[in-house]
Design brief:
- The chain is α+β, with helices and mostly antiparallel strands and 235 residues long.
- Helices cover 56% and strands 9% of the residues.
- It has a single domain, classed as Butyryl-CoA Dehydrogenase, subunit A, domain 3.
- A hairpin with a 2-residue loop joins strand 1 and strand 2.
- The longest helix has 46 residues.
- The C terminus is likely disordered.
């Protein structure tokens, strides 16, 4: 018994299409065969894009600054593992070796659950694109890519700035209560300090985001192509 070259399912004798995934058998129809090859190419490129998105986690993702002073730089992996550390700024140090404004920046020892969720979605979509039939795999890859893109947009462009500002304000309040504020700052105005915080996306964030968008588009094209080519019901 013959088997489908796309999904491996057993084929009925004389079948022109696979009953499991809808792929043509034996390249029936020249145009259809070219469409199948094109869909396979798009599928592989989409998978490669998801792999590139994962590699983007190793590159710089964010730079946290206050009044144009860089306080923290972190890759996606740093955010996932809680290994982000403040930037050493000698110019920010006050007398006696105190850290000045740098003392307000917390060491991030907590993992970022949103970045972890995005990474899991990327890996899950990539795995499903291999183990499922082409149409279902493309749908899973498309949904996972789009969801991961939305998660990282929310985390880096929206939530992270507020979280960092809140942490700095808390550290500033604690420091002011214990030592009357860090050297050179007196008692900082909390609202003004929050407005001075900026979170700038790095190259790794943009690489991951654009790769995810490209993967979602390519998976959508494969899904639409497979949907159009599925054989209709026979009576």
């Amino acid at each position: 018994m013959n088997h489908c070259t796309n999904c491996g399912a057993a084929l009925e004798p004389g079948a022109a299409f696979c009953a499991h995934c809808g792929s043509s058998v034996g390249g029936a129809g020249g145009g259809y065969g070219r469409g199948e090859r094109q869909a396979s190419t798009f599928m592989n490129i989409a998978r490669g894009a998801k792999g590139l998105a994962l590699l983007g986690f190793l590159l710089p993702w964010v730079t946290v600054s206050c009044a144009n002073q860089p306080l923290l730089r972190a890759s996606g992996l740093d955010l996932m593992t809680g290994n982000a550390r403040p930037v050493e700024q000698p110019a920010m140090r006050g007398a006696g070796g105190d850290g000045g404004l740098g003392e307000l920046m917390p060491s991030s020892s907590q993992v970022d659950v949103f970045i972890i969720a995005a990474a899991i979605l990327i890996v899950l979509g990539l795995v499903l694109s291999f183990v499922l039939a082409r149409r279902k795999g493309a749908l899973a890859g498309m949904i996972a890519s789009a969801a991961a893109a939305l998660v990282i947009i929310y985390e880096v462009l929206i939530r992270l700035k507020g979280a960092v500002a809140a942490a700095i304000q808390e550290n500033a309040a604690n420091s002011a209560g214990a030592t009357k504020g860090p050297p050179g700052l007196g008692e900082p105005d909390m609202e003004q300090l929050a407005r001075m915080i900026s979170v700038d996306p790095g190259v790794g964030f943009w690489v991951t985001l654009f790769a995810l968008v490209a993967a979602a588009i390519l998976f959508a094209m494969v899904f639409a192509s497979a949907d159009r080519k599925r054989p209709g019901p026979t009576y």
